[in-house]
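Quarterly update from the structural biology core.
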Amino acid sequence: MAPPRVLLVEDDAALAGALREYLSGRGFAVETVFGGEAAVDRLARGEVDLVVLDLMLPDLDGYAVARAVRDMEAAPTPVLMLTARSESRDKLRGFAAGADDYVVKPFDPDELVARMRALLRRTGRAWGEPQHLGPVAVDRARRRLSLGERTVYLSPREFDLLETLAAVPGRPLSRSELVARAWGVEAERDDRTVDTTVARLRRKLESLAPAGRPPVAIATLWGVGYRLDVSPP
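Predicted structure, tokenized:
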């Protein structure tokens, strides 16, 4: 399957270049424009799966671009706002304009990728090329994990959690972070849902290596959250 097509709207040429290189290395096909009017013109031609949108642009601002996206089509392209504006009123205005998610600069690039993938999943635009977590093959299209001749299938919720943890391997995420990154900032899921999903996912990972420690494991950090540990292949 073709990689997701991302339109990056960012007037800082240095940041745009660095971010384009990073996202391209993570499996995205990235096209860059440097102003709001250019973004609207490009989006009008279609064939974009996700917009990463700065707010402070030299012509049309990001709010106007987001509103234009919402007016273009019945199933509008998802929009992730990436901006230095961190006040609550700016975020609320962004969501009101039509943003699907909002990330504040400076940002963790792995978190940005996790949020982009979550938006693609929720809008049915995710791609399905197999990848690996250590020696474990990951088939996104089938939500399937394979190690040698052993295979397990994950539920959508289990796969979302695994992919979210895998975006930042070795780094702990709190339950609230997991909910926001896996299912979106407006998802209504409590700690019990996260714990139950982690327990099921952990059992499936352990079944891949019944005679020893699984090469992909979820560690519990009491009072903090969960962390994904991946052994080298």
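The first helix runs from residue 13 to 25.
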